[in-house]
Design brief:
single chain; alpha/beta; 6-stranded mixed sheet; two-stranded antiparallel sheet; 10 helices; 8 strands; 16% strand
Length: 216
């Protein structure tokens, strides 16, 4: 059984990526069963791939070119966000189930600021049931904190979430997802819809751009 992984291939975060990949390989019962999928900006593909292979010469992987310009057009620019959060690769996960080969039925997505500390098979074998994704839950901040006052005052937008203000949230930087169910439920279109509301609206509706659309 091949464990499929997706990690953004960003040259500015190669050190973190190498640490992450090393931790995955070290915690795999059978490292030869690992296959990696790397979204990458066209301008960085050659350099990042070369660096990657210099550390992991036997790594099984495939790269997918990301159109950074079109991705940037889908989001609203925020002057108060750091440069790393403005990277188009931060939004590549939205399109992943439509980029991966049809034979890939499930995949694990990880941000490059992670390391794996236990057997990866435990995560890979998580039963999704009828759900599209599995992701860790956090409760130190309530759901409402990630959205603006404008969002909560606009009942057309926030009405169905009113009873969830105190709910926990999940981190899409760690996701196990079913690609077929993702496509079946049209998750990409729903995420892009909220991103468009954020971009075209008179005011912002959420603060953390890559996180909030997933919560909605």
């Amino acid at each position: 059984l091949t464990c499929q992984w997706v990690v953004s291939l960003d040259f500015h975060y190669m050190r973190g990526l190498i640490a992450l990949l090393n931790s995955i390989i070290l915690n795999a019962a059978c490292p030869d069963s690992l296959f990696f999928h790397f979204p990458v900006l066209a301008a960085e593909k050659e350099q990042t791939s070369k660096t990657l292979l210099s550390f992991f010469s036997d790594l099984q992987f495939q790269t997918y070119l990301i159109d950074g310009y079109n991705l940037q057009k889908s989001v609203r620019q925020m002057a108060d966000r750091s440069e790393d959060l403005e990277s188009p690769l931060n939004y590549a996960r939205i399109y992943l189930p439509h980029m991966l080969p049809a034979c890939v039925r499930r995949c694990i997505y990880l941000d490059t600021d992670m390391v794996v500390l236990d057997r990866i098979e435990l995560l890979w074998q998580t039963d999704l049931g009828e759900h599209v994704i599995a992701s860790p839950e956090f409760c130190e901040h309530p759901f409402e904190r990630y959205f603006t006052e404008y969002f909560w005052q606009n009942k057309t937008l926030s009405g169905k979430y009113e009873t969830k203000r105190d709910a926990c949230y999940f981190n899409p930087g760690v996701m196990l997802f079913d690609t077929a169910k993702w496509r079946q439920h049209d998750i990409t279109r729903k995420l892009l819809r909220w991103m468009n509301v954020q971009k075209e609206g008179a005011e912002r509706i959420y603060r953390l751009r890559a996180l909030a659309p997933f919560l909605l």
